[in-house]
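quick one, 909 residues, struct below
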Amino acid sequence: MSETGLVIVESPAKAKTINKYLGKNYVVLASYGHIRDLPSKDGSVLPDEDFAMRWELSARASKTVSDIKKAAKEADSIYLATDPDREGEAISWHILNVLQDAKLIKDKQVHRVTFNEITKKAVQEAFAHPRELDLNLIQAYLARRALDYLVGFTISPVLWRKLPGAKSAGRVQSVALRLICDRETEIEKFRTDEYWSVHAVLHTPDGAPFEARLTHLAGNKLDKLDIGNEADAQAACKRIENKALKVTSLESKQARRNPYAPFITSSLQQEASRKLGFGASHTMRVAQRLYEGAEINGETVGLITYMRTDGITLSGEAIAQARDVIGKEYGNKYLPSSPRAYKSKAKNAQEAHEAIRPTDLHRSPASVRKALSDDEFRLYDLIWKRTIACQMESAVFDQVVVDISDGTEDVVLRANGSVLNFDGFLKVYQESFDDTHDDENDKRLPPMRQGDASKTIAVNSDQHFTQPPPRYTEASLVKKLEEEGIGRPSTYASILQVLQDRDYVILDKKRFIPQDRGRIVTTFLAMYFNRYVDYQFTANMEEELDAISAGHVVWKEALRLFWKDFKAAVDKTKDLTITEVIDALDEDLGHHFFPVQDDGSDPRKCKACEDGRLGLKLGKFGAFLGCSNYPECKFTKPLTVQDGQDEGAQGDTGGLNLDAGPIELGLNEEGVSITLRKGPYGVYVQLGPKDPADKKDKPKRQGLPKDLSPVDVTLDKAKQLLSLPRQIGKHPETGEMMEAGIGRFGPYLKHGSRYISLKAGDDVLTVGMNRAVELIASAPAGKGGAVAAKALKELGEHPTEKQQMAIFSGRYGPYVKMGKIMASLPKGTDPESLTIEEAAALVDKKKGGAKKKTVTKKTTTKKAATKKAATKKVDDEKAPAKKASAKKSSAKKASTKKTTAQKKVSVKK
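---
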């Protein structure tokens, strides 16, 4: 009789895929993540007992653990196949401890197997080469979990006592919150300066127009703020108009732009935010599904490698695949002579794992499109292109700097530009940039030679105002955390979510805005626990935790050093009165709640009793502003910034100061600039500047749809808007072209001479054939006549949604329609034979309903919760003893190995 093996992984999807690879002699079960955790109460970590940790089996895990124990009794071997990172190692350690306590592994072999991708080859290779549990990784997990618990469960009660309404604090969470609050303080304290720029529209001898900006005036180089008013700007314009200008200097140099490294966790979150509009949590959920696999050609296979990594290396096999694809798809001129290698510049980068990449680069996005949801496809497409691009040739530009003057330095104008000579990796992948990117050098210039006369067509001046630093987006905050070495990339998504769940911040128009509750908590922590919300201290602690995982630091020694100073800081707050705390917060946050008034009046003067002073108060439900004459004066006010004082919130402009002038988004394919502007009728995008020589010609403009915030307008989005009206396609029955556009009364469809308004939820930029035909058919008959879309078959009500379903004929074949949802029938399906159950399944898949239903299943959580949870104290002998001195290190090391050997289960290969 052949031996049987029990394989334990985290997720059911992963279990299903791996089971297919291993065969009938293996039982694969999912642990559903962690089975144990520290109870959410005081005493789970005991510093006075050498940091003993008491674990509790979660109520959710009761049935799971019962199934694992039952299977373990029958198995000959046990394989712990959780994820290949610290958390995965910890899950395996918890499972092993539970099985040891139940005395189920005395006569069994226990193996630890890891694989970076869920493919048949990778899984079988891992099972052929098992290992033991990595004690260093486990101890790094224990240290991190103990630190997070001690900080959270020690500071949070202090907050509850001293700051009613505050919810919690966290070791990394509070530092991320401080970053957001510090940025908001910068914005509030920012004072706008007016400045003017002067630029001229010139012609080359061949008549080609170009624009140059004034850089020198009266022999002096101009700084950004040197022209500070309109009078000075007009004087500079007149000075230029009277000059005979020519090209006095022309510098051209070749520049190479190298591709970015393949994705790691943080860069994937950033780029998915900028390019796809995904939040960090959503990115990780979608990546998890791609990692666990999809059914391709009848086989479930993982599509990407493990997505929690900060290593930017690629395996030799992956590089070979990438080079093969590049040579075949794009030609040898795009293939470097040797593979590219990357090295991380981020603090605390751990290079143990590969970068995030497709498991097979020959599997193009187009080839897997049908097996993926829209978001899965978009993320896979992003990962595939980034991986291919990272092994391609550099892009080559000619960067040109031209100075134009009359031969003196009385006035000097400069034109910058570039010419793309070879697109290289840009053929596949164009990087996106953050708020600080300057694309001045991306402008194109006509051919010029030194000495060419330049005819002045027009000289203009533009008013500008200095802008405060932008609020953080998810992408820019993740980038900042990574740069500072704060936290680990795998935790960023959960940190950002916790800040929102605690109502410390809100995400408005993709920007983090701290709430008053968050600012008060941050100020309190900075006053009384400054070291523990200090950026550098937190980064240093991350380095120490990484040193534990590398085996260079003893974990309990690190905890002792931390706890000694931390406890002393907490003890200092015991005698603080709420009054003292409020007075300190009132002093520090006064600039925020009581900004300086333009008329010089006292912003703290009570508007009710006239002689009272407004200040910060704390009540049962949190902080508020109240009068010093209470209880005689009961005037109160919620914590909000006074109207007109928040420079980052400017009505419908999404925080952009468009009153100061247009914002350039970039260039179109012809090299013409595209700008975002504000007019009397709202915000719009514009193609190119107005030609001053043509009084009648107006540049192309397009207003923004009501549901599009100005802050969300990217260069690509602006190009799409300027391409309106766009052709959707010919109506399948009338043969007339259908168009989508934005008019005086909002987004519309045009069919012949008829105009039909788009409904709420319909996107003018993406509305397709089937939806357009439906809208036209359902619109009231008007000029041009309505075309009714007739159902091929009425199906009846959806089993759960209780909405009518029917089969219609579309340009691309028959489809099922329920409300606004239209799901195409699979190729070869006979519409007449389609059942109501099959139709409902198609609709559910289209709207993602099938996935939502899986969580409505009844569970036995309530029953499990009533059972008494088992509490387990960690055996301290599983960790190495503290090193006494350098001289004794060898002896201690031997002792540690001996202890470890006693507690580990040996792995037989």
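Residues 797-873 form one domain.
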